[in-house]
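User: I've been trying to design a sequence by hand for this structure and keep getting stuck. Would you show me what you'd pick, starting by listing the structure so we're on the same page?

Assistant: Good idea, let's start from the same input. This is the structure you sent:
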């Protein structure tokens, strides 16, 4: 996390002291680095520059309007998965022809809305969906470009909850069925133009091998289909690049491109990428305050004001996030502790058995690292807790990009029935 570094024993984001943000804006608060977000976006775009790819930032990683706007202004398209994400995309004035839309369960309303907006591709995940898009496109007198999301049946060797391209997963269409779609439907369905292949094999993938296997399968399929009269012009290879949370050694953007580019050589395909975590993950931290230090006969707990509703990843995937005090103190031994929230679940923890300075005390601020992706976007109001604030740092300045929720927000849509 290059843009989060200690200077004179204080943790900074770019040029801003994180403790200052925590004291001024309150905690829990997510803090993102503009420089890091743009840097990561450019890293992946530049790695593939010889074929001028379309990089569609995967909004689900972090859909804050300011963050999406920042990336869109830098040239990104967007990968969306719901009507809600399309609504957000429209708010930030992205060129709608840079939007690709995946999801196994697009509803009629969502399809109609996206079709009417003029998105680039639907990434189609079933035959039933393809037929639905065709009917709706017909009713709107449109011909819609679609990509078939294939399930290449490769094991991405990541957490089973975020592996998406084996036969057991709900995502995509197997290669044999994809062939049949071209034989049986490509000509028959007049209002869809099947001109792309999409794949996304999983998330937090640390080696290039699974990507290489899947891209090879996709390209072989495209060659085959084109030789039989199809006209596939685009290949979307999804997201999934892993990042460093602890001591992982994931491929760099350069290594990734170096492995993928030769497979695409002389194929004349327009390449689309959908990175989410790679751009946002290491670009953000979650700041939280210690409410109590609780020593029991067997262990120490730091009870903090963030919880599983703010950051679900540790509870849900047993994910590791580094946790560090924003101020380095001298001396002080290390002591093992569990860092837990106030939610009424034993599964509510941000870290277990973590070595931290034993002189940490009430009111101290901790930074939960690498929480820029799948942090806020997976947060909830469980236990009627207000969702956190968000801040974007730019050099020596920062801006609030989401106000902390109020109690009023919690009940805004509720109606007290006549009971
Ligand atoms: N494209 C599609 C179709 C996807 O389903 C996803 C993520 C992405 C792109 C972006 O993948 P990325 O580059 O971020 O790996 N909540 C989990 C991650 C779920 C990913 C879901 N799909 C986590 O916290 O680890």
């Amino acid at each position: 996390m290059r843009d989060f570094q200690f200077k004179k024993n204080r943790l900074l984001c770019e040029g801003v002291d994180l403790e200052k943000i925590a004291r001024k804006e309150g905690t829990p608060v997510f803090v993102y680095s503009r420089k890091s977000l743009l840097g990561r976006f450019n890293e992946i775009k530049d790695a593939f520059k010889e074929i001028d790819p379309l990089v569609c930032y995967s909004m689900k990683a972090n859909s804050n309007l300011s963050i999406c706007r920042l990336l869109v202004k830098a040239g990104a398209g967007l990968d969306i998965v719901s009507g809600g994400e399309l609504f957000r995309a429209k708010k930030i004035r992205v060129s709608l022809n840079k939007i690709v839309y995946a999801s196994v369960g697009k509803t009629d309303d969502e399809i109609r809305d996206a079709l009417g907006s003029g998105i680039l591709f639907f990434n189609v995940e079933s035959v039933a969906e393809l037929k639905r898009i065709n009917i709706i496109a017909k009713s709107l007198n449109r011909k819609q470009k679609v990509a078939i999301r294939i399930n290449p049946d490769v094991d991405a060797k990541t957490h089973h909850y975020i592996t998406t391209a084996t036969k057991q997963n709900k995502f995509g269409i197997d290669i044999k069925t994809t062939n049949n779609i071209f034989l049986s439907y490509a000509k028959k369905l007049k209002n869809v133009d099947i001109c792309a292949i999409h794949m996304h094999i999983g998330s937090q993938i640390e080696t290039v091998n699974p990507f290489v296997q899947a891209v090879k399968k996709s390209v072989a399929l495209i060659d085959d289909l084109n030789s039989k009269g199809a006209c596939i012009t685009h290949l979307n290879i999804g997201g999934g690049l892993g990042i460093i949370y602890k001591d992982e050694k994931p491929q760099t953007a350069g290594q990734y491109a170096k492995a993928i580019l030769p497979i695409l050589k002389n194929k004349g395909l327009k390449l689309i990428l959908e990175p989410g975590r790679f751009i946002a993950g290491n670009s953000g931290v979650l700041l939280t305050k210690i409410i109590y230090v609780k020593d029991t006969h067997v262990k120490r707990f730091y009870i903090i004001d963030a919880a599983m509703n703010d950051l679900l990843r540790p509870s849900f995937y047993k994910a590791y996030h580094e946790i560090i005090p924003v101020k380095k103190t001298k001396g002080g031994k290390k002591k093992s502790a569990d860092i837990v929230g106030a939610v009424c679940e034993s599964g509510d923890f941000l870290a277990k058995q973590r070595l931290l300075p034993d002189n940490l005390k009430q009111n101290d601020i901790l930074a939960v690292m690498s929480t820029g992706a799948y942090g806020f976007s997976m947060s909830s109001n469980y236990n009627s807790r207000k969702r956190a604030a968000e801040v974007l740092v730019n050099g020596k300045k920062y801006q609030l990009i989401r106000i902390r929720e109020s109690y009023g927000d919690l009940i805004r849509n509720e109606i007290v029935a006549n009971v």
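That's my pick for every position. To get oriented when you compare it with your attempt: Residues 58, 60-61, 79, 102, 162, 200, 203-204, 238-241, 274-278, 313, 373-374, 378 surround LLP (CB under 6 Å). The CA atoms of residues 219 and 267 lie 8 Å apart.
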